[in-house]
Specification:
nine-stranded mixed β-sheet; 12 helices; alpha/beta; globular; five-stranded mixed β-sheet
Length: 367
């Protein structure tokens, strides 16, 4: 059966999904080399961002690339970075036609990859499954266009939006399937962020605990204005194994900083907000400058409320259990003085999935 451009691009997009959360600061790209309606080469961005998808696919195709069509989920790069341009590699391989899903928002490329291919006599088709490609690399796009990472807030709560009982008992609100989903979600993000309050209360590891994905644990980020984190916490004891950044303020003691750095934590001092807490916007900007495309936020009600108040959440994931904890339970979101419905943060539900007895609700921010 002869497939059309969209069908081939769907396959390329599935390849690109393989290393999402594992290639920053690069985007995750998929590439197919197709000749005589057969795939002769496949590639996807490898761990750490290299090699690029096009190079991997061309190497697999070899001489079969001559006269073939390349399907790539992102415009081939046209600049010299740590590797030569992928557009040059496609030209050298004598590809006849290139089908691209979307332009690269990187100002070093921004359409010039397609221009270079056309100037070499290669037929170029743009915009095939563009929306799907943009969704796949939303973190990369957000970082380049807004100078911020794409932020996903994840919470597990009861039907009545409580995250714990009145005495803070919360393990486990949701069932095994929901927790498995949550760990898979961690593996698809570049970093996971929480506040020191959650570290002190729950002593989490913040790693990925799924068989076969143990090496896909994200960078851990802790917000700790006064460095209250315990030396005996799992975050500190595993810092040599899992890279961890702690954002703090000038209020933190230098002795504690040096002590934590001795365990392998990277301490970054930034401005505090009006209450002396780590400034969320400054922390996110710093994270983006480090090339982090996406962050998963797992936190308690206080930090969750601050993210929502400051309009810093791009996507809201709610794992909801079929239980009721009552009005004296701990609220998922604390009060923030809202008096007019027209000023309420607005999200649109995009998906709802059944996970055993629980449900996963996905909401995206309305701009």
């Amino acid at each position: 059966m002869v497939l059309d451009d969209a069908a081939w691009m769907e396959i390329a997009l599935r390849l690109a999904e393989r290393n999402i959360g594992n290639v920053c600061p690069n985007p995750s790209v998929g590439c197919l080399i197709v000749k005589d309606d057969r795939i002769v080469g496949r590639g996807w961005t490898q761990e750490g961002g290299r090699p690029h998808a096009e190079v991997m696919a061309l190497e697999q195709a070899g001489e079969k690339s001559v006269g073939a069509t390349a399907y790539t989920t992102l415009e081939p790069c046209s600049h010299f970075g740590k590797t030569p341009p992928c557009s040059d590699a496609l030209i050298s391989a004598r590809i006849k036609r290139v089908v691209g899903a979307m332009k690269d928002p990187d100002p070093r490329v921004d359409g010039m990859g397609f221009v270079k291919l056309r100037e070499a006599g290669i037929e170029v088709v743009e915009g095939v499954l563009e929306r799907e490609a943009e969704e796949l690399n939303r973190g990369f796009i957000t970082r380049l266009t807004k100078k911020l990472p794409f932020v996903t807030l994840k919470m597990a709560m009861s039907i009545d939006s409580r995250i714990a009982t009145k005495n803070y008992h919360s393990q486990w609100i949701t069932g095994e399937e929901a927790r498995h989903s949550s760990h898979f979600l961690r593996s698809k993000n570049d970093a996971i962020l929480t506040g020191v309050g959650t570290v002190l209360a729950d002593n989490p590891s913040l790693n990925t605990r799924i068989s076969g994905l143990e090496n896909r644990s994200p960078l851990r980020i802790i917000l700790d204005s006064n460095l209250r984190i315990s030396i005996e916490s799992q975050i500190v004891s595993t810092a040599a194994k899992h890279k961890t950044i702690v954002f703090t303020t000038v209020a933190a003691e230098e002795t504690k900083k040096k002590q934590l750095e001795g365990f392998g934590l990277h301490i970054i001092t930034i401005n505090g907000d009006e209450f002396g807490r780590v400034s969320l916007i400054e922390a996110l900007r710093s994270i983006a400058k480090k090339g982090i495309n996406s962050i998963l936020v797992e936190c308690g009600g206080t930090l969750c409320t601050e993210f929502i108040k400051l309009n810093l959440i791009d996507e809201f994931l709610v794992y909801r259990a079929p239980i009721v904890l009552g009005g004296d339970g701990i609220a998922a979101v604390e009060g923030f003085g809202l008096s007019d419905l027209s000023t309420a943060p607005n999200f649109m539900q995009t998906k709802i999935t059944r996970l055993g007895a629980d449900t996963l609700e996905i909401y995206k921010r309305q701009i």
